[in-house]
Automatic annotation (TrEMBL):
<dbReference type="GO" id="GO:0006535">
    <property type="term" value="P:cysteine biosynthetic process from serine"/>
</dbReference>
<dbReference type="InterPro" id="IPR010493">
    <property type="entry name" value="Ser_AcTrfase_N"/>
</dbReference>
<dbReference type="InterPro" id="IPR042122">
    <property type="entry name" value="Ser_AcTrfase_N_sf"/>
</dbReference>
<dbReference type="InterPro" id="IPR011004">
    <property type="entry name" value="Trimer_LpxA-like_sf"/>
</dbReference>
<comment type="similarity">
    <text>Belongs to the transferase hexapeptide repeat family.</text>
</comment>
<dbReference type="Pfam" id="PF00132">
    <property type="entry name" value="Hexapep"/>
</dbReference>
<dbReference type="InterPro" id="IPR045304">
    <property type="entry name" value="LbH_SAT"/>
</dbReference>
<dbReference type="Pfam" id="PF06426">
    <property type="entry name" value="SATase_N"/>
</dbReference>
<keyword id="KW-0808">Transferase</keyword>
<protein>
    <recommendedName>
        <fullName>Serine acetyltransferase</fullName>
        <ecNumber>2.3.1.30</ecNumber>
    </recommendedName>
</protein>
<dbReference type="InterPro" id="IPR001451">
    <property type="entry name" value="Hexapep"/>
</dbReference>
<dbReference type="GO" id="GO:0009001">
    <property type="term" value="F:serine O-acetyltransferase activity"/>
</dbReference>
<keyword id="KW-0012">Acyltransferase</keyword>
<dbReference type="GO" id="GO:0005737">
    <property type="term" value="C:cytoplasm"/>
</dbReference>
<feature type="domain" description="Serine acetyltransferase N-terminal">
    <location>
        <begin position="6"/>
        <end position="109"/>
    </location>
</feature>
<keyword id="KW-0028">Amino-acid biosynthesis</keyword>
<dbReference type="InterPro" id="IPR018357">
    <property type="entry name" value="Hexapep_transf_CS"/>
</dbReference>
Length: 260
C-alpha cells in the first residue's frame, strides 16, 4: 500500500501553523512540536473540543490508543481530511481544516466512536458520542456506516441515525437529518446514501430509502422515497406575496438619536 498523501506533510504543516500563531497552543491545549505520531495529533485535536477536565484527558488517552491500534480508523480520518481540504477552500490547507473545520471534527469524533463500537466497547462509544453531541451540536451514532472521503460542510445540526449508510465521497451540508419514519422500523430503518451523492442544508431524509449514486437533494427538501442515481430532488420554492404589513425594526441611527 502506498503512503497516504497527507502522512508525511500533516505534522510539519501543523507545526508551521502553530509556529505562525503561538496562541494556538494555548487555545487547543497541546503543542504539535511534541507530537511525533499522527495518532496523537488526531487525539489532541479531538480532546481540544471538550471542556478542560477529566473527560478531556480521558478522550485524549482513548483516542490516542484507538488511532494507534486501528489503522483503518486512521486511514478514514486522513481520507476525510483530504476530501474536506479539496472541497472546502475556506479554512485553507489540511492542517487548517484539521483544527478549524467544524464538520470535520464531527466526522473525526465518529471515526473514534465507530472504532470503539466495532471493538465491542459499546458503552464507551456511546458515552464519548454523547460528549461530542453536546460539544459539537451534531449527533452521529457509532452504529451508522460511513464510507471514506465524506464531507460535512459546516456540520452544525446534522443527525445521522443508527442504521444509516453513507458511501464514499458523499457531501452533506448543515442541518441534514437522516432519520427513521416510525413506520418502517426494521433492522434497516434509516436512509442509504450512495457514492458521491450530495445533500443540501436542512434536508430531511426519512426511512429506509436509497439516494442513488451522484444524486442531489436540494436544501430544505423532505425525502421519503428512493431517488434514482444522478437525479435531483428539490424543495418547494418560496412564493412571493403582496407587500407585508411589518415595516421593519428601528434603524441603528434612529436608536442613537433617541426619542424625539
Amino acid at each position: 500500500m502506498s503512503p497516504h498523501p497527507l502522512a508525511s506533510t500533516l505534522l510539519p504543516d501543523t507545526r508551521a501553523l502553530f509556529a505562525g500563531e503561538p496562541t494556538l497552543s494555548e487555545l487547543f491545549g497541546y503543542d504539535p512540536a511534541q507530537s511525533c505520531e499522527l495518532s496523537h495529533l488526531f487525539a489532541a485535536v479531538l480532546a481540544s473540543l471538550l471542556p478542560e477536565g477529566r473527560a478531556r484527558s480521558q478522550v485524549l488517552a482513548i483516542a490516542s490508543e484507538v488511532f494507534e491500534r486501528d489503522p483503518e480508523a486512521l486511514e478514514a480520518a486522513l481520507n476525510d481530511l483530504l476530501a474536506t481540504t479539496a472541497r472546502d477552500a475556506a479554512p485553507g490547507g489540511a492542517a487548517e481544516v484539521l483544527h478549524f473545520a467544524h464538520g470535520y471534527h464531527a466526522l473525526l469524533s465518529y471515526r473514534l466512536t465507530r472504532s470503539l463500537w466495532l471493538a465491542g466497547r459499546d458503552s464507551l462509544a456511546l458515552a464519548i458520542k454523547s460528549q461530542f453531541t453536546r460539544a459539537l451540536s451534531v449527533e452521529i451514532w457509532p452504529q451508522a456506516q460511513i464510507g471514506h472521503g465524506v464531507w460535512l460542510d459546516h456540520g452544525l445540526g446534522i443527525v445521522i441515525g443508527q442504521t444509516a449508510v453513507i458511501e464514499d465521497d458523499v457531501s452533506l451540508w448543515h442541518g441534514v437529518t437522516l432519520g427513521s419514519n416510525f413506520v418502517d422500523m426494521g433492522a434497516a430503518r434509516h436512509p442509504v446514501l450512495r457514492k458521491g451523492s450530495v445533500v443540501g442544508a436542512g434536508a430531511v431524509i426519512l426511512g429506509p430509502v436509497e439516494v442513488g449514486a451522484g444524486a442531489t437533494i436540494a436544501a430544505g427538501a423532505i425525502v421519503t422515497c428512493d431517488v434514482p442515481p444522478g437525479h435531483v430532488m428539490t424543495a418547494p420554492r418560496a412564493t412571493e406575496r403582496a407587500a407585508g404589513r411589518f415595516g421593519g425594526f428601528v434603524a441603528l441611527q434612529a436608536l442613537k438619536r433617541g426619542p424625539k
